[in-house]
Amino acid sequence: QPVALWGGRFASGPAEAMAALSASTHFDWRLAPYDIAGSRAHARVLHRAGLLTGDELDAMLVALGTLADDVASGAFTPTIADEDVHTALERGLLERAGAELGGKLRAGRSRNDQVATLFRMWLRDAARRVVIGTLDVVDALVAQASRYPEAILPGRTHLQHAQPVLLAHHLQAHAQSLLRDVGRLRDWDVRAAESPYGSGALAGSSLGLDPEAVAEELGFSTSVDNSIDGTASRDFAAEFAFAVAMLSVNLSRIAEEVIVWNTAEFGYVTLDDAWATGSSIMPQKKNPDVAELTRGKSGRLIGNLTGLLATLKAQPLAYNRDLQEDKEPVFDSVEQLELLFPAIAGMLGTLTFHTERLAELAPAGFTLATDIAEWLVRQGVPFRSAHEAAGECVRVAEGKGTGLDELTDDELAKIHSALTPSVREVLTVEGSVASRDARGGTAPARVSEQRERLVARLAEH
Ligand code: ARG
Questions:
Q1: Could you tell me whether strands 194-195 and 222-223 are parallel, antiparallel, or unpaired per DSSP bridges?
Q2: What is the pLDDT of residues 36-57, one digit of tens each?
Q3: Atom 3 of ligand 1, nearest CA residue
Q4: Is 84 near ligand 1, meaning CB less than 6 Å away?
Q5: Same domain for 80 and 147?
């Protein structure tokens, strides 16, 4: 006989299709350990409010302990008749503590304040796992940067050759954005660390309970200031969904580059066999599936965020059953990321970069033209004319079919009187890179300082 939590005013049980629509244990069972932790804390405040005797509290905690063990071992599982995780666990408690004692625990709480609290707890733990996974990816990027500290990369804007940079500089740029994602999750946690327990259905509790004590026991920094907000708001879930969607977009941008770098046309990298796949028909293929799945899953995480926002947008306060739709998208985002992290870290960490090819391509497309202009500025030429003269160098070199460094002394002097042969100092990729030595720039010394700061930040975590 199913134990509904609200039998009293009903003459019959729910229709089968009603129950099927309503059921959520196939996804909210993840919250079971948090639900039991909440019940323990709640039992203690009931005791302190004089609503459970000391003996009753002890018996309740023993029963909850057995239930927790049985949930962990799989001996206790939800049935199709259990509407949700809370219903199932109440049945489990009644079976272990007896109906008399077990029936006392629900006083002063509602599934509305429970679910809002447990979802926050799950997300806060998930955020910690996501941070660890992200840091593993950052580690892989920084390890590659240290493996190739001085290798050159043709830096691009608009995907066109722009200016040469250090490969390490570029890899570290990705590390920076991922560390901001980590920062976002930590900032989020400060706001998420408020417990709605004690809000009841929406109006709070009349039983003299202590929401702050529950909050503290459950690892929150405080309890919510407003019980209506505590049960109705899900911006904590949406903000989390944004933080992880942004993270997945940052991972997708890395992935996109690996895919491009791995083409025959670019030829920048070779993927390790362990992190590539073959084709069932074309024997020569070695495909960047990890990167493609990363790029693909970012679309899924964006969808999870927008789906959740759409679920929330027209809900009046306080709790509505629509809110049951809040959990699956966010659970899914976390689960997809947990699949991705080890694969991305593995793929990135084992990439072989073809540094000779990278160096060879770096000056292509007259990427040192800006260096000519800036060299002229250092000789006192206004940038406007310097830019003009450097542009003319490009035009002449292009006409001859040579590089900028092959312009003759005469050709240079004809373009601008200040263009003496010593301009060739900056017409090497190494010279160009070394000259960009202000904070944040691509000069090897600056890039290795950046890397030291990254390593220090990784060590903080
Ligand atoms: N299972 C619901 C959820 O996930 C919580 C139950 C609240 N149900 C209710 N009828 N008030 O949001």
A1: parallel
A2: 999 999 999 999 999 999 999 9
A3: 324
A4: yes
A5: no
